[in-house]
Specification:
CATH architecture: Roll
CATH topology: Nuclear Transport Factor 2, Chain: A
Helix content: 10-25%
Number of strands: 6
CATH class: Alpha Beta
Structural class: alpha+beta
Strand order of the largest sheet: 2-1-6-5-4-3
Radius of gyration: 16 Å
Order of helices and strands: HHEEHEEEE
Largest sheet: 6 strands, mixed
Amino acid sequence: MTIEQQLQENTDRVLIRELIDKYAICADTRDAKGQMALFTQDTNFEVYYDPKSEKPTQVITKNEDLLPIFDNLNSYDTTMHFNGQSILTMDGNSAFGITYCLAHHLNLVEGKQKFMIAAIRYHDKFVKQSEKWLFAERKLFVDWIENK
């Protein structure tokens, strides 16, 4: 690999990590349209509430159908998604990655705080389109949930 190729791959890795973090920031700021803009038009988004099951709980196959999924975060008073460790395998204008996330959800119920914390693993396929990295596929695995 040439120095130029190494520099491009390093730049792409940074841009993909920024994409992952933008997803969390859009979620926490309730920017559902911003989240949607991070996905390809023919995206595949799957949610697995039972990570041991091979069958997803929910599947979305078009970008335009993501709005109700992302808009559902409005049912919480506030959220905070913390992205943790991740690995990334590059292949030119495509990549695969796994990212860990702790998602904190807060509601006030009768003046008392109610927390829901979800441990999430994202399995992602990324593509570079028009010099911009996007999610081509995002599989969201909920490993556990704690309610306080």
